[in-house]
User: What shape does this take?
Amino acid sequence: MSCTIVVGAQWGDEGKGKIIDMLAADAEIIVRYQGGNNAGHTVVVGENEFILHLIPSGVLHKGKTCIIGNGVVVDPEALLKEIEMLRLKGITVDDNLLISEAAHVIFPYHKVIDKRRGAKIGTTGRGIGPCYVDKMARCGIRMTDLVNKDSLKKRLQANLEGSSEFNFEKIYSQYLDYGKKIKKYLANVPVVLHEAIAKKKRILFEGAQGTLLDIDHGTYPYVTSSNSTAGGALTGTGVGPTRIDKVIGVVKAYTTRVGEGPFPTQFNEDLMEKIRSKGKEFGATTGRPRRCGWFDAVIVKHAVIINGLSEIAVTKLDVLDEMEKIKICTGYKYKGKTYKDFPADIDVLTNCDLVYEEHEGWMQDITSVKEYKDLPKNAKAYLERLSELLQVKIGIVSVGSKRRQAFVRGRTSNI
Ligand code: GDP
Ligand code: IMO
Ligand code: MG
Assistant: This one.
């Protein structure tokens, strides 16, 4: 498989970072295609935990090319901080990080607007939405402008015209300085990827957020401002659809969500507390407690359709180890109608009654299981039922945050 997209199939935080790190061992290039430093992708290597916000999660393997595509919105301050964080841990990106010249740049005014207006949605406050607004309004400033002082001046002046809140000179000189520091990473990403594909290099496209946070296909308006689904991997990098071989959806064995918006299968407080503490469900970017709930097959089936998933990677199965009974939501009931497919109307999601089926738990520690066949019978039955409901095969199962705690279904783990 030369080109594989890895995409979140719920509301983000499914464990994409861990799955990308695992697959990156056999890839040459890893590319982020949308979102920005609203993402927090965790990779655990030995005793070290890395949280990556902008740099692709393949960076912890030596010699991989890491690319930030045009669809990503880049906060230069956050980027340079992340590069420094990696450097302090002995990982340098001098020779293997490329950033698209066409990626849009986050400015201080984007963050201020986001903090002011984002509360209703519960945004991360990183300026993501306002930066995408400027991109669509055709007044955004791109990476290439940071290394062209006339262009930066003209565009920034136009954006700050009439504003007494922001000091043009200060921002201008700060961003020119960022431009000097970032210049060496800038590249014509579509051409780089085109040539890599011609040489049959293996490329991973790393999604941020998740399908239900997608601007078009998620729980609008409680979404992020980009296409976090597989389609975004094409527009966000400059690779055509005929080049993609496989799409892997990452799903948690239950569901979580951070921020506002409908969440039909959300637990009651007792269960929420239990799963949140066992699953360490606190945001990797903002530290906010994540809302937790049962697996919702309606939303994940939606993700199977929207992304054309070839297979799924099920993560955090171990978090359900101590559950006597495990529920799966298979439908919503609202005003006399049963919904088996994801409805666009969020009133349905907010006010529906749920159709659940209940499964026996396995009540045993699975964190050292190394092969699918060694999972307890009830754990296999749960996974097989998910696969049947979703009509997609399970390719990877993860039973802990560490590198070795995951296996490819059907063969011994060699990760
Ligand atoms: P991402 O945004 O999709 O990359 O996911 P996050 O990194 O935000 O959140 C996933 C969290 O679950 C991280 O703390 C991971 O270290 C952890 N994790 C990933 N896979 C597993 C797993 O199989 N079991 C457990 N217990 N934790 C996992
Ligand atoms: P990863 O890549 C989970 C959520 C925010 C908020 C909404 C909009 O780690 O899975 P934004 O700042 O993007 O405008 O916020 O989206 N959100 C995420 N939730 N995981 C993420 O990223 C998220 N990125 C944004 O909490 O509800
Ligand atoms: Mg995350």
About this structure: The chain is about 30% helix and 20% strand. The two ends are 17 Å apart (CA to CA).
